[in-house]
Design a protein that fits this description.
This protein has 13 helices and 18 strands. A hairpin with a 5-residue loop joins strand 4 and strand 5. The chain starts with a helix and ends in a 24-residue tail after the last helix.
């Protein structure tokens, strides 16, 4: 069949249906590209509405080309957080170094973006909301691939059949569990836990991050805007090393608070005030620092994208960028192969896995440069920061730019 015949067939056959679970970053990005290629897309999201706010995230390297192709780059540039300095502190609160952010992150000034997670989610949703069906306040309960499609039962009681289903439902993906089994077999713990929340900016911080360290512990305050008295907020972050994940605390907010308070009980600087704010925070997020590593990202008519398939951890700064790139690659791979899901899923993995692995390999268990776990490693890091022009990185092309996007022609 010629290319012209293939295009004619695509236009005259019924639109293939795809259900995407998750409406954060990967889900709406995938919905945009699948809709553009002629698929009928439904996105189901457990939350009752699009989640606003959230911590700052990076969009850089290859992901910048994805958002440019989507037409949302100008909006994201307007939302860019202009962080002016990063200040590192000793255990006693004394300053180690105060640096420009790109010296530490290896980013490119004037090109790389840092935006609030909610601003990126809003931009993605606005780009696709008029063309895609969104089901908020619901989620997938069961998947059955025994027929000619995927029979889906929703938690709300509904039943529908789709040609394909894609899990874009994050690190603790329910879709992945339904398809491949328990998370533990794919979960790679990196030796740290963290608590994040917002608190009042009583510190006079503006467009900056301050980080306090002692061996195996870090506390950070991140002001993404101007200081405007007690109406302003800062993102507070407490990170600590731990040999094994505290499984008993993951489903118990009070246990999470008690654990963090115990770990940081003798810490100085602003940590006592941070611990007090943690107790009353209504947006506390606690988790292990981890990655998802899978031998394959699909099974039958169901595939995974973003953190559900290959979470790199926040230590890489690449979670959102991998989600954006993965969505582009998955949609294009399916479209270019005339909807043959098996061939398309295989092409998606073949074209994306090396890029994903390079970015995941930027950090190993317990060796994050900004969070040293021993006194010697902390002293070495502080010495490096004092003489820093840029943090040492691998030779050659940066991992976040290692993939050149193909032009797909369905």
């Amino acid at each position: 069949m010629s290319r012209t015949d293939q295009l004619r067939a695509v236009r005259t056959t019924p639109r293939r249906t795809v259900l995407i679970s998750g409406a954060s970053i990967a889900g709406p990005a995938l919905a945009y590209w699948l809709n553009r290629y002629g698929y009928a897309v439904t996105v189901v999201e457990r939350a009752g509405a699009l989640r606003a706010g959230g911590y700052p995230i990076d969009v850089r390297g290859t992901a910048l080309e994805v958002v440019r192709k989507m037409g949302i780059l100008p909006r994201l540039r307007d939302a860019h957080i202009e962080v002016r300095r990063l200040t590192f502190l000793e255990g006693d609160g004394g300053m180690v170094a105060s640096l420009g952010p790109h010296s530490v992150t290896g980013g490119v000034a004037g090109q790389d973006l840092e935006v609030r997670r909610g601003d990126l989610a809003d931009a993605l949703y606005a780009a696709v909301r008029d063309d895609v069906e969104f089901l908020f306040g619901d989620s997938i309960d069961t998947l059955d691939q025994s027929g000619h499609g995927v029979d889906v039962t929703f938690r709300g009681g509904g039943r529908r059949t789709f040609d394909m289903v894609v899990g874009a439902d994050g690190l603790h993906s329910h879709t992945r569990e339904l398809l491949f089994g328990p998370e533990a077999q794919f979960h790679r713990y990196l030796g740290y836990c963290f608590a994040g929340f917002t608190m009042r900016n009583t510190f006079g911080l503006s467009h900056e991050l301050m980080m306090w360290n002692s061996p195996g512990r870090a506390a950070a305050l991140y002001a993404v805007g101007d200081a405007v008295g007690d109406r302003d907020e800062v993102h507070a972050f407490l990170n600590f090393a731990r040999p094994e994940p505290p499984f008993d605390a993951f489903r118990d907010p009070e246990a999470q608070q008690d654990l963090v308070a115990e770990v940081f009980a003798d810490a100085g600087w602003e940590v006592p005030g941070m611990l007090a704010a943690l107790r009353t925070a209504d947006d506390l997020f606690f988790d292990a620092v981890s990655q998802i590593r899978m031998p394959r990202w699909s099974g039958g008519r169901v595939a995974l994208v973003g953190d559900a398939a290959y979470a790199p951890s926040f230590l890489t700064g690449q979670g959102s960028s991998l989600a954006l790139v993965g969505a582009y690659m998955l949609a294009g791979s399916l479209a270019e192969r005339a909807g043959d899901h098996a061939v398309g899923f295989a092409a998606y993995e073949q074209g994306t896995r090396e890029f994903v692995t390079m970015n995941q390999d930027q950090v190993g268990a317990g060796d994050a440069a900004l969070f040293p776990t021993t006194a010697r490693a902390l002293a070495e890091r502080n010495d490096m920061l004092r003489r820093l022009s840029t943090l040492p990185s691998a030779e050659g092309r940066p991992a976040h730019s290692a993939l050149t996007l193909p032009e797909f022609t369905p």
